[in-house]
Amino acid sequence: MRNLFTSLGFKVTLTDGFVRTQRIIDVLQGVRDQIGHSDQIFVAVIMAHGARGKIKSCDKDVELKKILEIFNNSNCPTLRGKPRLFFIQACQVERHDEREPQRTASDENIYWNCDVDLYKDCLLSLATPPGFVAWRHRDKVTYLSALRSVFTQNINDRKDGSSPPDITELLSTVASKVAYELEALDTEESEKKMKQMPYFMSALTKKLILTPGKAS
């Protein structure tokens, strides 16, 4: 992901390791404080364990709405009117239990609620909808690997000279890739088929097209 966004002209800050909640907040606030008026877009890519509307650190959960709040217009006025994109690779379920009973239509509103306030000019893309597991496997397509592949193919490797698709079209392609390829690569050893559908919410007020070396 670092190479991808560097190729798109982003200044990339990389933090890894299983860290405490305050460290996560400090890193995000530190990045926010470096954003200048000439910067035109912000992107955060987070890979972690998760729960509904949260990511997990080594001491406690961090709510996604807290992360988005750090970059809202009040806390980050330099990004006012500019797109802010958040890509989250994390489960969105409290506990994965294969014995969990089948959910019914009456449960739908409960499971499709990640309790996130989506601010103007923000886009939140999740590896999986609220209430579901995000699969990770070295031999199977994952949300972030699909994101990298689709963005590279449609932005950096575009040969026909046409404009790349906008961000929502790209994310729809990512969702399709994950949904179909993850199931197709399932092994015969398991009777239980795996399925995953990435999910995004957008409050962007303008069409966003990423191009090599810059965003417009």
Describe this structure as you would to a colleague.
It is a single chain. The protein is of the alpha/beta class. It has a domain at 2-96 and 104-135 and 197-215: Rossmann fold, CATH 3.40.50.1460. It is 29% helix and 15% strand. It is built from 6 helices and 9 strands. Helix 4 links the parallel strand 5 and strand 6. The protein is globular. Residues 1-95 form the Caspase family p20 domain. This is Caspase-3-like protein 2 (Uncharacterized protein). Belongs to the peptidase C14A family. Pfam families: Peptidase_C14. Residues 166-212 form the Caspase family p10 domain.
Features:
216 residues; alpha/beta; Rossmann fold; four-stranded mixed beta sheet; three-stranded antiparallel beta sheet; 9 strands; 29% helix; Caspase-3-like protein 2 (Uncharacterized protein); cysteine-type endopeptidase activity; Caspase-like_dom_sf; Pept_C14A
List the helices and strands and how they pair.
Layout: H1 2-7, H2 21-34, E1 42-47, E2 50-51, E3 54-56, E4 61-63, H3 64-70, E5 84-89, H4 108-111, E6 122-126, H5 143-156, H6 167-184, E7 199-202, E8 210-211, E9 214-215
Parallel strand pairs: 1-5, 5-6
Antiparallel strand pairs: 2-3, 3-4, 6-7, 8-9
Helix pairs in contact: 5-6
